[in-house]
Design brief:
mainly beta, four-stranded antiparallel sheet
């Protein structure tokens, strides 16, 4: 049975940094396109960053230059390094994996149609 497990997150003051991690049991993340999404209270889930099987990265406009997505295929871990955090970044963060690219034509794929999800981890940024 496949399990996608997240770690990291927590509470940080504005301007601080956090790193999220995501790994999978029973699934090699190198065989999937993977991404981070987030969902703030009362808002829809939005794409944050994605890294393809070939290592190509794409970022949401609000995090460009501050967040970095990476993966360690040998360790089967996906990371999201978040720097210069703003209160607007407060949300539940989810990692996702799919056989298809997570973005196409400049748009994020429908989150409801993705293959695998982590359990979510809360990030809170205070002002």
């Amino acid at each position: 049975q496949v399990q996608v497990v997240q770690s990291g997150g927590g509470f940080v003051q504005a301007g601080g940094s956090l790193r999220l991690s995501c790994t999978a049991v029973g699934l090699r993340l190198a065989t999937r396109h993977v991404a981070w999404f987030r969902q703030a209270p009362g808002k829809e889930r939005e794409g944050v960053a994605t890294i393809g099987r070939d290592g190509t990265t794409t970022y949401g406009d609000s995090v460009k230059g501050r967040f970095t997505v990476s993966k360690d295929n040998a360790e089967n871990i996906l990371y999201l390094q978040m720097n210069s955090l703003k209160p607007a970044a407060t949300a539940m963060y989810y990692c996702a994996a799919d056989r298809r690219q997570l973005t196409y034509g400049g748009r994020w794929r429908d989150p409801n149609a993705l293959e695998r999800w982590g359990q979510g981890t809360l990030v809170t940024v205070s002002s």
